[in-house]
Design brief:
The complex is a heterodimer of chains A (about 220) and B (about 220).
Chain A lengths: L1 H6 L1 H34 L3 H15 L3 H15 L4 H27 L2 H9 L4 H16 L1 H14 L11 H12 L4 H29 L4
Helix pairs in contact in A: 2-3, 2-5, 2-9, 3-5, 4-5, 5-7, 5-8, 6-7, 8-10, 9-10
Chain B lengths: L1 H6 L2 H38 L3 H14 L3 H11 L9 H26 L3 H9 L4 H31 L11 H11 L4 H31 L1
């Protein structure tokens, strides 16, 4: 297996890089989008509440594969998108719905008195969100957001469906080229674990500390 | 408009619905199996049975941190190398069960941990053995709390069956692709239909879940 890795190190490393790149772009995008939708859900405005709710429910109940294929097959005919872009966009939209739910739960678990206090001290609703509620909410949601990031990294394997050059795609290409259906998958599995395992243990550690009232 | 009606002809719809049935079949079998196996693994991990629990816990962590797609590939293409041959349906079910068992094991373990410690201590000091305590005191309370995460795990299992498209399991996503590969004008109707079918299926499951959750609370 080590010889297989050595002889195809370039493919593995580039796949590793594309997986990381896609995950980071999707994480940043879905954090922004997710926070926007979470805010839309808590804003005292009926219309935006409903829009956000519909978006979140639809995206959460449709497989990532269907969303990604939609961008790769349908949207790519109008605007030119390569597999990597389509996959990353699909990943971003899919994850944003989950992050929106997480952030909304965080906002709701901040004590109501904080918002009321900020409002009665003369801050506008947006100012109270920006300076008082959101900073507290984000501290609460760090562990669940970390877990979202782990599943985002795992979900980035969806790029293999749309020729997104990521780790999973490279494993398929290699196993087709070398007729070895065992080695490439094991190596790629180890590479995924290098990304996800430390994060997962760190999140468990954080959860424990936050539960003890550390933070 | 004409194209839309053609795309939703009864032949196509029946073809898709047969795929939806495959999706449901795989999901139900995997949910059943992974619920049992996951609960066992979670309990083993919770009980802290020395190195045995440590090893089980490590394996669970490894599987949880791998992409499901990789596990599906591995069971379908990798395992025949070491002499284990399975059909498409079988290897999808096995892969889903392996992955979901690990996810459910974590849910079960943290569910049991979330039961107040006094319950365990009270039961033990009343003379119940550890297995009795688990069965009569801890698990009933833990499973009540676990309904929401379990249901969302089941919903994601149903969604993840679409990944088996890559090994050509004839489920609903694969069949939609088959249809629009033959008729490019059916692409958009097929995606709408897919979204609709998955949405109805998953939304029903999650609503059922929150219904049971409310019943349990009351």
């Amino acid at each position: 297996m080590w010889t297989l890795f050595q002889s195809h190190a370039n493919e593995f490393i580039s796949g590793f890089g594309w997986t990381i790149l896609s995950s980071i772009i999707a994480l940043a995008g879905s954090l922004v989008l997710g926070t926007v939708f979470a805010l839309m859900e808590v804003v005292p405005n009926r219309l935006t509440n409903i829009i956000a709710k519909i978006y979140i429910e639809i995206v959460r109940n449709i497989p990532l594969l269907v969303i990604t294929m939609f961008f790769y097959v349908v949207v790519a005919r109008v605007w030119h998108l390569n597999g990597f872009a389509a996959g990353t966009i699909g990943l971003t939209l899919y994850t944003s719905a989950f992050i929106a739910e997480t952030v909304r739960a965080g906002i709701n678990s901040v004590d109501k008195g904080q918002l009321e206090g900020a409002l009665s001290n003369g801050l506008s609703w947006w100012e109270s969100m920006r300076y008082v509620v959101l900073p507290q909410a984000f501290r609460l949601v760090i562990p669940p957001l970390g877990n979202q990031f782990i599943s985002l990294i795992k979900n980035s394997s969806i790029l293999a469906f749309v020729a997104g050059m990521d780790l999973m795609y490279q494993a398929n290409m290699l196993s087709q080229a070398t007729f070895d259906t065992f080695g490439p998958y094991i190596i790629v599995g180890i590479l995924y674990l290098i990304l996800t395992m430390p994060l997962s243990y760190y999140m468990q550690y954080l959860e424990k500390h936050l539960a003890q009232g550390g933070a | 408009m004409q194209e839309l009606i053609q795309a939703y002809s009864w032949i196509n719809l029946r073809f898709l619905l047969m795929g939806l049935w495959v999706t449901i079949e795989v999901s139900v079998i995997s949910i059943g199996l992974s619920f049992v196996i996951g609960s066992l693994l979670g309990i083993i991990r919770y009980m802290k049975l020395g190195w045995f629990s440590k090893i089980v816990g490590f394996i669970v962590d490894v599987i949880r941190n791998l992409p499901l797609l990789l596990i599906i590939f591995f069971t379908y293409f990798g395992l025949p190398k070491i002499g284990i041959h399975m059909g498409v349906m079988m290897s999808t079910t096995v892969a889903m069960t392996i992955f979901e068992s690990a996810m459910i094991a974590e849910i079960v373990r943290s569910g049991i941990l979330a039961v107040p410690k006094g319950q365990l201590e009270g039961a033990l000091s009343n003379g119940l053995t550890m297995p009795e305590t688990l069965w009569h005191i801890l698990l009933p309370q833990a499973y009540k709390k676990m309904i929401p995460p379990l249901v969302s795990q089941f919903v994601s299992l149903i969604k993840d069956t679409s990944l088996a498209t890559i090994i050509m399991l004839p489920e609903v996503t694969f069949r939609a692709q088959t249809i629009y590969a033959q008729k490019p004008q059916a692409i958009i109707p097929m995606f709408i239909m897919l979204a609709l079918l998955y949405f109805v299926l998953n939304f029903t499951v999650s609503q059922l879940g929150s219904y049971f959750d409310r019943r349990m609370e009351a």
